[in-house]
Design brief:
Chain lengths: 182, 182
DNA sequence: CTGTAATTTCAGTATTTACTGAAATTACAG
DNA sequence: CTGTAATTTCAGTAAATACTGAAATTACAG
């Protein structure tokens, strides 16, 4: 934290730093991302290093990570030799990317592992029980995944609709029943 | 990994250990939880320490953490002086607890922080922009949260229905439009 | 109570993860 | 090409986190 951040922006940056460290993302990268998201103008590595008081090399690694998550994109500013980075303008785009990446890194490997273990023949009743739990987990995770994949396909407009549809999935289910005449 | 785990169960335990460390949960606790979930019978601390080759004190701390997450419950077995632990029998219960706890620990503090920062009067156009992004984030997160809260209220049976309703939220929306004659 | 089994705590240590600065590489203006 | 600004790499170090063993506490049977 070296230069020119207003208290408001600094608070937000620090908060996302702390939060970041509860996810896979580390504190530094969390702060960097908050800074980029809160900034209208794209930032270059030096801007970030200066604003947050990190070493230039640390910023370089952080940028690499954010790029690999596809959370920022590189852009060249006219008449500038340095590289600038910015986040999507729509927070829903950011959220979708996060969900997608987390799925790839955290869910998919688990589904694969479970599927493989379910192919094995249980050697005893202990393994039979264990396999049943794995089957349950697999089914549940797959369902939730399909579901969020579906949500991710929505654009901001439809999302708003859903949001207004409001907080009652139960009602949606009832509607469906009614609609299908059951 | 000292004793008596079959290769199948061991693989699963190790996998959830690795995965655990990508969440807030550490590797050891992840392994412990997998072991408990995969076991029909409740386990005591010594069972766990022996099966996974951890020190008794490490297991004690892990149990404390799992209890604080409400992912396991303590039970006394008849004629046993030691304390035994088991996971819910329904994986959906486990998932609901996880969602709930993650919300409490990761989402709520962020919503609070954002709300507080939104109460401040922006000092300049830079802060105005930053606040707009915070507002967007707050709205989106709140919506997703309300939504998952709703899902959490479903019991296994309704969940199944939803799962069969299948992977098309878009269609649900269409249904709603139709039903409401819009 | 008393003795013992079970559990927890915690200071010290080990391991992992994050961060830095110096050197190497790349990218580009002239 | 050449020179210089920008970026990346990476070995070394710092910081954070996880884990252990010994000692303290608790819980309970007799």
């Amino acid at each position: 934290m070296t230069k020119n951040l207003t208290p408001m922006i600094q608070s937000c940056v620090l908060h996302f730093g702390e939060m970041g460290s509860r996810w896979g993302i580390n504190r530094t990268v969390g702060q960097m991302y908050a800074l980029i998201v809160l900034n209208k103008e794209p930032l270059c590595a030096d801007d970030i290093a200066e604003a947050l008081g990190f070493s230039r090399s640390n910023v370089s690694m952080g940028i690499k990570e954010l790029l690999s998550w596809e959370l920022i994109k590189l852009q060249h500013l006219p008449g500038e030799r340095r590289e600038f980075y910015s986040a999507p303008g729509d927070v829903w785009d950011i959220a979708k990317t996060l969900m997608e990446q987390r799925r790839k890194r955290e869910i998919d490997p688990t589904l694969t592992t479970l599927r493989n273990l379910l192919l094995e023949t249980p050697a005893n009743s202990e393994e039979e029980f264990a396999q049943q739990r794995m089957r349950d987990m697999h089914e549940l995770i797959e369902m939730l995944t399909l579901w969020t994949a579906e949500i991710q396909r929505l654009d901001s407009a439809r999302l708003m609709k859903l949001s207004k549809l409001g907080s009652n999935i139960g009602k949606v289910l009832d509607m469906k029943d009614k609609l299908l005449g059951r």
